[in-house]
Amino acid sequence: KYNSLNIYRILISGKDPVQEVCELACIIKKALTEEKRVSTKTSAADLVTETDHLVEDLIISELRKKFPSHRFIAEESTAAGEKCVLTDSPTWIIDPIDGTCNFVHRFPTVAVSIGFAVNKELEFGVIYHCTEERLYTGRRGQGAFCNKQRLRVSKETDLSKALVLTEIGPKRDPDTLKLFFSNMEKLLHAKAHGVRVIGSSTLALCHLASGAADAYYQFGLHCWDLAAATVIIREAGGIVIDTSGEEMAMLIAQAIQTINYGRDDEK
Ligand SMILES: O=P(O)(O)O[C@H]1[C@H](O)[C@@H](O)[C@H](O)[C@H](O)[C@@H]1O
Ligand SMILES: [Mg+2]
Ligand SMILES: [Mg+2]
After folding, report:
1. What is the mean pLDDT of residues 78-104?
2. Which of 1, 133, 164, 213 is 20 to 30 A off residue 63, Cα-Cα?
3. Residue 97: active-site member
4. Active-site residue among 56, 123, 167, 225?
5. What pTM does this model have?
6. Domain extents in the chain
């Protein structure tokens, strides 16, 4: 049984997170190796399976039992037409499987991401790497951890010494792909050590929080990809900004061209 209350109490009470959320992850890990019913959403590369829906429904039903007044913003509910609007109410922001394309291909880089906001302020985030049993947590003002290990971002500010992470996104029309690759090319011309795409934005952002990469950029990320990861990165000493930002972000922002996806709350 998925024990959501423990996450809420553990993070609010500041106790070290235990790996209770692994029960949810066990559902995903088991399903990873099994046959799946796959459908597409905004493009042929934007996949969803019955496990995405199952996990999202499980999380929401458990949380709703314990916190009936809370609101929810979740990837598959939004895809089914629910409005994506953040209010001052306590709100859980959920990506039930981040890395669904990886999940469909049994590529073991998949996560569950649960963020929590009150008065439009992100209070805490939990991202669980389902196949490596790593629980990333961050609570506003209380630090960020992977299992028991404190997370700190890298101090690199020189783009020519940076490992940069990005994701391809669901838009695959020729113009978008041309822009995507020209952005990557610009960073490589700026002598970045490398650019990596791992297929899960939340886990890429967790690698950033652990200092295993120096920067992440992407157009078209959704609030459910970003909510938990934003708390974790901020608590690891990093910044999360749009491309009109600071230092390393400025260098990257100046090097690349925008790919326009629109905002979740404008759809
Ligand atoms: O749909 P899920 O939750 O798997 O999220 C992924 C998006 O689908 C990709 O477009 C996006 O590029 C990232 O890979 C993101 O993790
Ligand atoms: Mg997802
Ligand atoms: Mg996602």
Report:
1. 96
2. 133
3. yes
4. 225
5. 0.88
6. 4-150, 159-256
